[in-house]
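Hi support team,

I'm opening this ticket because the web form for multi-chain structure prediction keeps timing out on my end. I have pasted the exact lines I submitted so you can reproduce it. The total is 669 residues across two entries, so I didn't expect it to be a heavy job. Is there a limit I'm missing, or should I split the entries? Thanks in advance, R.K.
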Amino acid sequence: MAILVNQNTKVIIQGITGRDGSFHAQQMLDYGTKVVSGVTPGKGGIDIFGMPVFNTVRQAKEKTHANTSIIFVPAQFAPDAIYEAIDAELDLVICVSEGVPTLEMVKILAYLKDKKTRLVGPNSPGLISPGICKVGILPGIAFKKGKVGVVSRSGTLTYEIASHITKAGYGESTVIGIGGDPIIGTNFIDCLRLFQADKQTEAIVIIGEIGGTDEEKAADFITKNVTKPVFGFIAGQTAPADKRMGHAGAIIAGGKGTAAEKIKAFEKVGIIVIYEPEDITQKLSTVLK
Amino acid sequence: MKIHEYQAKEIFRKYNIPTSKEKVAFSLDEVKTIAKELSFPIVVKAQVLVGGRGKAGGVKIAKTPVELESHAKAILGMNIKGLIVKKALLAEGINIEAEYYVGITIDREKQTAVLISSASGGMNIEEVAQKTPEKILSTSISPLLGIKSFQVRNIGYQLFTDTLLVNSFVTITTNLARVFFDLDCSLVEINPLALISVNNEKKLMAVDAKIVFDDNALYQHPNISALRDIESEEPSEVQAKKADLSYVKLDGNVGCVVNGAGLAMATMDLIKRYGGNPANFLDIGGSSSPEKMREAMKIITADKNVKAILVNIFGGITRCDDVAQGLLWAMKEEKIALPIVARLVGTNQDKARSLLENSPIIFAETMSEGVKKVTQALKG
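Hello R.K., no limit was hit. The queue was backed up. Here is the completed structure from your submission:
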């Protein structure tokens, strides 16, 4: 069954004619994702990889019946691209672009409140339901269809941990990178709720990092609402305070958002914490066959 | 991006937020000239981009020109938490009757901007919030509507009884919110907001000022970007930024080169777990190039504390052969004699292997193996 993306997902790529957009369009097509069209204002009418390019998202949706979009435009154009996709009433919008101003995101989330669209990101590597559909930049080779749901604030660390799950033969139902920014559209709790309801998912891995309190809130949600076994990893135990560690959201500010606090919150509610990526295999073996 | 108090106060004055009469001095000569324009007592405040200057002796009051000179001498050139003070702000001393706090920041949990205020000003607001949360007044600001006067009045009447002061608080706070939204800030703060008497009339004034800007929005504000004080930043971090690398210097002995911020943090944590100490955080970013890798190695090896290096790459978009090529160039050009452990998996990993075959690089298959080998290499 998987979550959010599946065989019914039809994808528009916003920014398909750019370097990253065209590269990943090809990668997604190769993976078997139903990419149906692209959008680049001013380039409507041309074809790329046998797909039509449109000037607007509305046109692309009407002509190619897409329900999902992935955004690869430069950060300064990303807010407008997100608004356009929400306005076109797509079900799911994934923003890969990194560097969207925080106040822009705050406005977007306020605008999004009574809309039907789900936003993932920004600064997200996207998501993959292995063997079925990939909407993002994740390297397909690290994943295999299976029973573990993975939700993460980072990119390569997710590939690292998932590759151990893949090698051990458990495989993943869906892997989702929610993005490394402080203000994002879809959070841990949204994904936990979906994984809990998903029949294919038998265990959940949550990969957090320093900054904010999303992990603490997730832990609280898990005690009340999640019955499936949950495993946790937190990056940034050695990160100094008040320094942004790559991701805009990965910062210990005013003494808050430390790895120690998050690990404590996880352990308190019975989440099995792993300290070394490869340990996930052994820990999973205690609950999965 | 942080700016100095004197720069933040200049912005405040443009937005009609009253501050004390003051001027910044870059040298002792300038201190003497400025002293003639101000009346004593004069407060000398170190301008440095780190908190806790008061405790470090970076704020002193001078009653006479002789005192002023000796205080300025002590403060200019002072070392506060590793940063050298190069500027001092000279402000006319005022008689403060009470200290308040007012600030605006992004609340990640509420996903919006919040106005925070307190009658316990002049102290570390995080400590106040932790020990006496009842003393913190806070209200969310709609990003679509902006701050509304009634919201500020509601808080104002909890802080002051005099309507004139409430009105003054509303004006100052509304202007502070304009600074926050106009300039894409992540924090604006007046601490303390001082209650003073001028000719028997009570007034509010910003005695200190703090502004932190959202780095992601700086492209919209070239005038603000120009305020960056590169001299007061870590030189290696400035160099890394130029090369489009995400780098944070730490004080350990194992240099790390990693792709991706999460994996970079996890690598540092694992080094610590195996008894080493990470010398840095470094993310070479998504699309790799040999040039970027070479630059990364240069920055890391310039840190004399570094005794061994771990390269940890999980190649997706990042190509392992690009990383290997940059590594070879750096080793040759910089004559790096330190032990290097490389764990390169993913896109083009075999090409990378053959490129590095005749080099002294120690290979590792997994992240844990890489970390074990690099901490062993430390022991010689």
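A quick check on our side: The CA atoms of residues 294 and 329 of chain B lie 6 Å apart. Let us know if the file doesn't open in your viewer.
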